[in-house]
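Archive transcription. Copying these from loose printouts into the bound notebook so they stop getting lost. Printout 1 of 2:
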Amino acid sequence: MATKYIFVTGGVTSSLGKGIIAASLGKLLQARGYRVTNQKLDPYINIDPGTLNPYEHGECYVTNDGHEADLDLGHYERFLNVPSSKANNVTSGRIYQNVITRERRGDFLGKTVQVIPHITDEIKRNVKQLGNTGNFDFVITEIGGTVGDIESLPYIESVRQLRWELGSDCLCIHLTYVPYVAAAGELKTKPTQHSVKELQQEGVQPDVLVLRAEHPITPEVRKKVALFCNVDPEAVIESADVKTIYEVPVRMQQEGLDRVVLKRLGIDPEATVADMDQWNFFLNKLKTAEKEVKIALVGKYVRLPDAYKSIIESLIHASAYNDRKLKLDLLLSDDITEENVEATLKGYDGILVAPGFGERGIEGKIVSARYARENNIPTLGICYGMQVMAIEFARNVLGYKDAHTVEINPNAKHKVIDMMEEQKTHLDKGGSMRLGAYACKLKAGSRAFEIYGKELIQERHRHRLEFNNQYKAEFEANGMIISGVNPDTQLGEIIEVPTHPWYVGVQFHPEYSSTVLNPHPLFLQFVKAAANK
């Protein structure tokens, strides 16, 4: 069958959960046996989120092919259990950059370059690029922002054009908010009506409406919304608040979202049945876990939990599969000192030293790593967290009190975290950041080998500096081994203390690879060690 294109837009307010609805629909269609991919179009002018402060936009997600992407791609991968790529996330910055590059090259033969058709053509090309591979039956594209935003106008215009070009192979879902006015004791549909009217004024009639609400949507409200917004009553879907995002696909299945979508696209919904057994197995474990595991995440961006979204979700997956209820506290590393570290961290079953480069908060992380190492608390350090564990070990075990990362103290005598010579050469050519999936060879007999159960693994990276191999022999002679290395460069990827109950630092980001159906082994074993502490 021809690839079907589904667009998910949002209205009334932001943060309604377009990404979760898009991922949930993708999951349901995938569970019926269809090949599905999700895509995110972001209206901001940045080329990608790589240079954005996490407080601006949450975590920066990284794909296997090294693209720095919006955090919604994390939701897509966690729900669909399928890796995404650079093609799955496009920003206005990239769209304009591509068009301007072509204009400078003379591709437009002297014509005036305009939003319509040149920018909209580039948007449509990026949308259809995934479908043109022949690998997908459905391409579900989420358009960031809220209908009415000036930034998203070219995207809505592109949807309008695609609906004409693709005909019955194209569908639009609009997610809106239905507020409950306590004084009146009723749900109000006027914001939804206005949002749909705004979308209609831009030339797009939604086929399906998904209504976020804190109170149940009554049949009368459905009828009213359907009447005023030109959609069938069965295409008005309720999205009530739930305790966990992993309930949303099940709720959408109960509401018949996948059936309505298939019917609108001319596909018989009775021809397939969504097999959600594995998903429901996970959901049941998540809901029925009674024993608690208490984890402290020590980081510098904890005031916005979305900055650590993939880590938090990975811990949720691992806790559920270990039959534990996760009690996670996000602790600001800036506030942790040698004087209060025991009072702050005592009582936790496990400590996760989080990513987050820069000077702010690093000493608090170092103090936390030392406390965890000396008090036998299961500890996982990720990326900068791994580097912090190495710095702490150099300072307090090897006795190099000035040990540091070259990023913060380039004049330190003992640069245990440094830029390797080959990277300095690479920097001159335009970039030294290690991005995307790289191989890692594990040391036989190590905890890392035991965790993965194999010698060669692939993990995603997002960093610039590395463990300085000049210190490898000294580290290993004093009790911290390098248990994982890049087979091509011999750069250290994993450090661990074999005499410690569970003390592991990884240079890569395992959280990017943890999904609902395939939780990452590092998180599984970290939580298991914490639960058995």
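Printout 2 of 2:
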Amino acid sequence: MSIAFIGLQILGICAVFFALALLLNGDGSREQKMMEYFLMGALIQNIGYLLELTAPTMEAAMVAVKVQHLGTMIIPVCYCYFIYIYCFEEAPLKALKLLGLIDAVLLLLILTCDYHSLFYRYLDWETTADGHSYLFLEYGPGYAVFIICATLIPYVMSLRVLIRAKSRRGEDAVDRKYGLILTLSFLPVIALYAYVTKLTRAFDFTPVVLGLVLSSVVILVWSRKVYDFGSLASGTLLNRMSDGVIALDERGRVVNYNPASAAIFAGLNSRAVGRRVGEIADFPEIVLGEDVQNEFFLGERYYQSHVEQITDRFGVVKGYVVRILDMTEVRNYIEEIKQIRIQAEQANEAKSEFLANMSHEIRTPMNAIVGLSDIIMEESKGRKVHDYACDIKSASRNLLALINDILDLSKVEAGKMELVCTDYHIKNIVDEVINMMDGAASKRGILLKCEFDMSIPCRYHGDEGRIRQILINLLNNGLKFTREGYVKLSVGGGPGETADTELLHIEVRDTGCGIKEEDLGKIFENFSQVDAKRNRTVEGTGLGLSITRHLVALMGGTIRVESVYGEGTTFILELPQTIVDRRTLNEVPKEIVSEEDEIKTFQAEDCRVLVVDDNLVNRKVAKGFLRPYGLMIDEADSGQKSIECVRETRYDIIFMDHMMPGMDGIEAVQRIRRECGENGTLPVIIALTANAMEGVREMFLENGFQDFITKPLDKKALNETLKKWIPEQKRQEPDTWEHSVEKMRKAKPAEK
């Protein structure tokens, strides 16, 4: 029997050694350390008891008993602490420390038992029937304290925690084998009871049973943690994550964490497991706030936290997962993007300001050139100088078209380009464009062709001005790059998406130099001109096709290009337009429209007008355009002078230049409205501006103006504006512009 029991004891020691070996590659957590401590205690206890079994004398056996109790005192408190950690319960550290202190006192009593009888009252060396000698002990009052404080209380605490964890009936209770550990924990208690009550007089099964149970618990826990594939996979993934992850139980205590989170929080280490996360050094309380997402700074780094609840299948909250994302680089990148956006906005504002200034600076002399050309043309009909004036006006209009291209591009890039839709006759627009471009084609010796599908409807609803601009751009592009042959404009149509729409099909074909295949994608870019070496003599800004593409897209249409290098190019447009008149072009081939020469003017001799402009030539142009109406015209060369004039005289209309040195037009109007009484509140004030940027109209209307006219002045636009603001009772018999000019020559109204 003694040999078999010694073999069993050796088996227990081997089991403890095996369990300790499993823990060699641990993560250093408190859970692991507690397992190492109680296994070391079990190892010392079992080795001590093995020495007691093989002791030849009573003195040697007593030394072995003291060694055995050295291990016994370690096990209960460490095992109890481990159970609390494993079951995610908050350990009663003060109680455990008190029990540890009592164990230390009891160990001192055991080590000094040779000098007193407090722990062992009687010792004897007995021999069994088969010749095995063993130590017989009768216990004193110290042993009762040992049983209660060093054994019973820790184990009762452990069993209570295991029973409570098992009673949760959640998935984690099944997964973590609480029931099995609870069952195993009862076995050492049974063995101890058998020995204390002398059911096993010669042999104490408590050390070997305790060693085997503790080894089984460690193997059960650690094998699941280390060898379970799911745990390995999740652990590997967790450890390799660059974001911090902290697992908490339902009470906010740390259950697990990954290396990334430990790198963020200096206080997050193996000792933090089982403690409330708020107790960890540097851990901000805001992370556990009510909001799911929080942000905080730590160590000059910017972090973002996300808290997610973990529930079981019954919906019971079992804990939380806190994810800590290092957003420093992202935040820096966002700040850089913000700075770039601010710089881009500033650059865009600077560009808009530059374009506005450029528009003003160029349109101001252009107003003089175009306006004086008009006046010369009207006053010199039949003379050779009339032809010169026509050439000057044509050249100035071409220059004005370039300016408008740049301004249109600015509007498109700002997303402020708007369509002005009206009813129009498609053939009228095309014929007008062909007549306009025919002169340029003839000068180049190029044939300009035009053909229609006469079965398409005659009238549509759309932006005729933009359609005209698109056709001019495409025809002008074809003429510039064609040295011989022809440029052909074809207009057709097909059914649109609805019964009320037509898909206009427009082709512009030329026999020019063509475009290389690799350059086809570049022709619609801003300021782009492909094959620059070959076409270096071709004039232009490179904006026409870019603006055309934007206009087509704004109308909901498409444009594409087909080209064979050296043979020619074809631009193909498809524009959806609303049908207004379903009669075909065969039925209504042309619509009669009024010509510019037939502008119907009127006389308003009782109307007094003030023209304010710092530029003398501009004032001359404005007066020249206004004289045919028989108006009484005054002029002022500055904002301050205009205020003085308004104080002295009541005007019906004031034409106010926008940009003037010293006091600009807006400030002058504000002072006129505020300081000049009825003389300042009654007149209609119309802005004369060379600024054609988007938003100008709103700016004027918000600052006391009623209307505005852009420079260069246009006779038709001016006539419509005067009709709008001069009451009918002050207007006299309609007349033609030519007749008004003749009357003006004979009798000029008084001017200041």
